[in-house]
Amino acid sequence: MRVQKHLYAEGPEVCQHIIVHPPGGIAGGDRLDISVNVGADAWAQLTSPGAAKWYRAASPAFQQLELHVQPGATLEWLPQETIVFSNAQAELSTSIELHGDARLCYWDVVALGRPASGERFEHGHFQSHLDIRRDGTLLWHERQRIIGDDGLLDSPIGLDGKTVFATLLLTGDVSSDLLEDCRSLSMPKPVRGNLTQLPGFPGMPGLIVARCLADEALHARAWLIEIWKRLRPALLGREAVTPRIWNT
């Protein structure tokens, strides 16, 4: 993993990092360890130039992501989608540690199979663990494991036939009017999405959770971007500026 560029499209206060994985994809037996530490009062926005690809494999491949955000700091983790090929064995673990009044905007977009190429996610598995803590207190704990051709892929209590699912998590609290504005968002392509605000522990901000299902990663990401554009000014105090790399 490499940091390709440091950009300051929003001025000196926000440093945008473009991170790349030179091999272009992750195969069986690979292990990718990523560790990020955002120093006190800094603002880091991390994104990627393209999709992360997990290839078909005879053995598991692993990614471990550790994010540390120090007091007064802000981290925006905004990578492009993860594509999980049929027969891949992808196992991801993410741990996020927030310290003091650190702020977080984190999203994740996962596409199962490659429908445009006629490939359904019929074999293999996708496994993901996500923990978010603030000063040692657990704020969010999530575990999921999706098996190729599992009934939940088509079940209405699962993915309901959609091949892409996405999550956006932001720390902070917003008005009910802003939440309703986000919920009423109209998109040109079919995306099923909703969001909710979870209360924080005493003395801690809450957590906003947005999720969606879509037929294409492009549609899911477009929905996340619109939600991000609406929530960023309220939660982080800055208008959203779309990274240029997303348009290349």
TrEMBL record:
MF annotations from Gene Ontology: nickel cation binding
Predominant place of localization:
cytoplasm
Keywords linked to the UniProt accession: Chaperone, Cytoplasm, Nickel insertion
Write out the annotated subcellular location.
Answer: Cytoplasm
- GO cellular-component term (any): cytoplasm
InterPro entries in the record, alphabetically?
UreD
Pfam families given in the database record: UreD
Tell me the function of this protein.
Answer: Required for maturation of urease via the functional incorporation of the urease nickel metallocenter.
- How does this polypeptide assemble, per the annotation? UreD, UreF and UreG form a complex that acts as a GTP-hydrolysis-dependent molecular chaperone, activating the urease apoprotein by helping to assemble the nickel containing metallocenter of UreC. The UreE protein probably delivers the nickel.
Q: Which family does it belong to?
A: Belongs to the UreD family.
Q: What is this protein called?
A: Urease accessory protein UreD
